[in-house]
C-alpha cells in the first residue's frame, strides 16, 4: 500500500459524500491507496454516507470517537495507516483526478523521510465565495505583506514553504514520520495544531516542504462573519498556548505591534473603516484585517 488518505470529519455528511466521490474518481490504482475516516463524534448521517462508499472504494476504514478535535482524530487514523505516504485532507476538500498521483510523484522523487508535499487549494467554484472568503486566502492584500489567515499560496511565488504552510487540508508526509511525531492534543480549535506540528517537525526532523501546485484540490466551506469571528478568536486563544510552548517565536504581539492592533480594533476605527470600505471597495482588505485583529485580541484575553 503506497498511500493512506486521512480524513477527520465532524457533522459534514454532505461534504464528505462529495469528498469521497472525488477520491473514487482518482487516476490512481484503487488497490494502491486506502482512505481512513476519523469521525470526531458526528451526530448527522455520516456513518450512512461512509457505508455507501465502502461498497465502492476498495480500502475504506471508518471509526468514530467522542468529540476530541481533529488532531486526536488524525492521530488515531495515522496509527491505523498502512500506506508509506499519508495524505492529510479535510472532509470538505474535493481532489482533482490526478491529485494522488501528484503527491505520490513528489515522494517517489524524494524518498527521504523528512520530505513533505504541499498541494494547492482553491475555493470550490460551485460554492458561494464572498469578499471575506477571498481575502482570507490572500496573504498579501496590504502592502504586499499582510492579509488573510487561512491560506497564503500567493506568497509561494517568492518563497519556499516553511512550517507556517503546514496546511493539513492538502499535505502529504511519510507515514513513519507522522507516527513518530503525532499532533499535540493540547491544541484545539483552528490552525495551531497544524502549525505546531510543522514547527516541531522542522526542529526535530529537519522537515522540508515541497510545493506542487498540480496536486490541486477545491475547498467547499462557506465562511460567515460569525464563523470568521469564531476562527480568529480561536487563533488568539491558541496563540497563548503556542507562546507557552515556544516563547522564542514571539507569536503573541507586544509593544508597538500590539498597540497597532489595539488601534485598528478600536470600535470607532472599525466603524469608520466599515463605512469607508462600503464606499471604496478597494479598502475592504484593511477593514477585514482590522476586524481580524479585534477578534484575535479577544481570543488572547480568553487564553
The name of the CATH topology of the largest domain is Spore Coat Polysaccharide Biosynthesis Protein SpsA, Chain A
For CATH, the homologous superfamily of the largest domain is named as Spore Coat Polysaccharide Biosynthesis Protein SpsA, Chain A
Distance between the termini: 42 Å
CATH architectural name of the largest domain: Alpha-Beta Complex
How many separate domains? Answer: 2
Pattern of helices and strands: EHEHEHEEHEHEHHEHHHH
Describe the structure in your own words.
With 303 residues, the chain is α/β, with parallel strands linked by helices. The chain has helices at 13-24, 46-54, 70-80, 99-109, 131-136, 175-180, 192-205, 225-245, 255-264, 267-279, 284-302, and strands spanning 3-9, 33-39, 60-64, 85-89, 93-95, 115-123, 170-174, 208-219. An eight-stranded mixed sheet has the order 3-2-1-4-7-6-8-5, sandwiched between helices. α1 (13-24) links the parallel β1 and β2. The relative contact order is 0.13.
Topology:
Layout: E1 3-9, H1 13-24, E2 33-39, H2 46-54, E3 60-64, H3 70-80, E4 85-89, E5 93-95, H4 99-109, E6 115-123, H5 131-136, E7 170-174, H6 175-180, H7 192-205, E8 208-219, H8 225-245, H9 255-264, H10 267-279, H11 284-302
Parallel strand pairs: 1-2, 1-4, 2-3, 6-8
Antiparallel strand pairs: 4-7, 5-8, 6-7
Amino acid at each position: 500500500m503506497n498511500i493512506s488518505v486521512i480524513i477527520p470529519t465532524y457533522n459534514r455528511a454532505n461534504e464528505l459524500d462529495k469528498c469521497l466521490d472525488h477520491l473514487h474518481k482518482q487516476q490512481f490504482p484503487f488497490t494502491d491507496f486506502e482512505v481512513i475516516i476519523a469521525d470526531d463524534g458526528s451526530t448527522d448521517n455520516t456513518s450512512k454516507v461512509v457505508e455507501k462508499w465502502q461498497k465502492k472504494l476498495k480500502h475504506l476504514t471508518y471509526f468514530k470517537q467522542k468529540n476530541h478535535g481533529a488532531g486526536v482524530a488524525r492521530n488515531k487514523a495515522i496509527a491505523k495507516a498502512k500506506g508509506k505516504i499519508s495524505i492529510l485532507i479535510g472532509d470538505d476538500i474535493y481532489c482533482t483526478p490526478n491529485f494522488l498521483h501528484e503527491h505520490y510523484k513528489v515522494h517517489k522523487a524524494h524518498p527521504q523521510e523528512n520530505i513533505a508535499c504541499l498541494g494547492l487549494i482553491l475555493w470550490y467554484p460551485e460554492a458561494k465565495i464572498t469578499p471575506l472568503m477571498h481575502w482570507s486566502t490572500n496573504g498579501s492584500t496590504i502592502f504586499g505583506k499582510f492579509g488573510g489567515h487561512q491560506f497564503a499560496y500567493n506568497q509561494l511565488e517568492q518563497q519556499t514553504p516553511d512550517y507556517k504552510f503546514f496546511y493539513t487540508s492538502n499535505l502529504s508526509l511519510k507515514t513513519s514520520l507522522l507516527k513518530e511525531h503525532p499532533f499535540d492534543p493540547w491544541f484545539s480549535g483552528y490552525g495551531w495544531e497544524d502549525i505546531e506540528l510543522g514547527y516541531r517537525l522542522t526542529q526535530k526532523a529537519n522537515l522540508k516542504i515541497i510545493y506542487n501546485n498540480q496536486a490541486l484540490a477545491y475547498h467547499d466551506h462557506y465562511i460567515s462573519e460569525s464563523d470568521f469571528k469564531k476562527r480568529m478568536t480561536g487563533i488568539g486563544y491558541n496563540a497563548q498556548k503556542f507562546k507557552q510552548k515556544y516563547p522564542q517565536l514571539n507569536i503573541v504581539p507586544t509593544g508597538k505591534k500590539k498597540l497597532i492592533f489595539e488601534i485598528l480594533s478600536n470600535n470607532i476605527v472599525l466603524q469608520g473603516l466599515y463605512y469607508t470600505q462600503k464606499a471604496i471597495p478597494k479598502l475592504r482588505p484593511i477593514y477585514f484585517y482590522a476586524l481580524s485583529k479585534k477578534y484575535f485580541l479577544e481570543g488572547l484575553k480568553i487564553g
